[in-house]
Amino acid sequence: MMEFSRRAVLRAMRGTIGTLALCKITGAERQRQHSLSSDMHKNAAETLIDYFSRIAPDLLRPENGYLKHPSLSPSLPGNAYSTDLWDWDTLWTARGLFRLAELKLDSALKAKLCTHAVGSLENFLDHQSPEGRIPILISAQHEDLFNSLSTEKPNPHNQAKPVMAQIALLVADKSHEVDWLACRFDQILRFHNSWRDGNGTPLGLMVWGNDVAIGMDNDPTTFGRPPFSSANIMLNCLFYQELRACAELALRLKRTSDHDRIQLQAEALGAAIQKYCWDRRDAFYYTADVMCVDQRSKWLPGIGQGMAMSWRSLPMRIQTVAGFLPLWCGLASAQQANELVERNYRRDDRFRAAFGVRTLSSFEPMYSLTAHSGNPSNWLGPIWIITNYLTWKALKNYGFEAEAAELADKTVTLLANDLETSGTLNEYYQPDTGEPISHRGFVDWNMLVLEMISTHSGK
Asked: What is the secondary structure of 418-438 as a DSSP string?
């Protein structure tokens, strides 16, 4: 067999993916053309696994300042975010590290991860407000940078994304233990109640209070929108998945009545997402604008109003990558999934790019790949590994194996090439060239590629 240097293999991978990525071909042809040779994929996988193995200890952070328990860092020491504990970043970092421990058969690392993941959750719960709210961000120097624990009524400040039960279930799955959660479980229930009390709507959907730290930071369906108006599709899918995780934890803790109640809550939220966010015309899931209020009596007092409004929400027909998330959490029907993927993923390159999935459809006028000064977090098109991963999971969940394999190859190629070129990883990337755009030294959800490697390579 011909010998390849790792550098030559990675260069060949990049060229192959870039050339073939946008061809309009059948699923079977795409799988054949995009599948990297076993040598190429093995080299890329080894590059990434070796890198994550070297840096994993640096992401296990001891207690410090406001972080009273050991926790997980999303980036390497000395880089942006390295002293921070972020809400959903903790979930993804933990998933990636646990997968690394499995690939390396490293039981010592797995045990340490359980301690640090539980510690991360305890840090969040230690700072919970009396009404159940949890900070988005805690650092050694600051307990609530985004003022999540404000007591305003209504409270426009966003709190932590609904991922606490998902973190707890991940640890329970990996440790095969759940008793450690018994004394904390009611805090998770209060956290969910605080979300419903402060951000619930009569439609059954959740809304953001404002557009600060919403995950996909400048998502046009929420960014710049009026307070409490955006029933963001990503937020509601996260909450749906959170309730399912919480119901499972209640079952394991033998809290049967809680399980039954939470299961009904999940079903109700799922039904609301289907009713208000699924668009049959476009075969796509959209964020819903819930600020549909008839104000004629305010502006024309004493005058007959005529026909009443018969709708309580409007779909915001802006296509973001979050429209695929109902497939990630298993909410879509098989027919919906088939229509969505065929019309919005396979048909053209609005989302499919040479190195993954664009965070905003290139057909949208807001599409932009520029990292702006101030807050450079740009979700208007660049590739983020978290959205590559969630879309990959969505595709696999519904049997789109060829598309999932293609996306795995693109993601492996992107990160392996970044390591080869710059010696580190970055936070997000140019979708058509793979060039890094922002935040050298970022790790976090980049480690989720390890799940994509293991599945695609048959490990």
From this structure: HHHHHSS--SEE-TTT--EEE
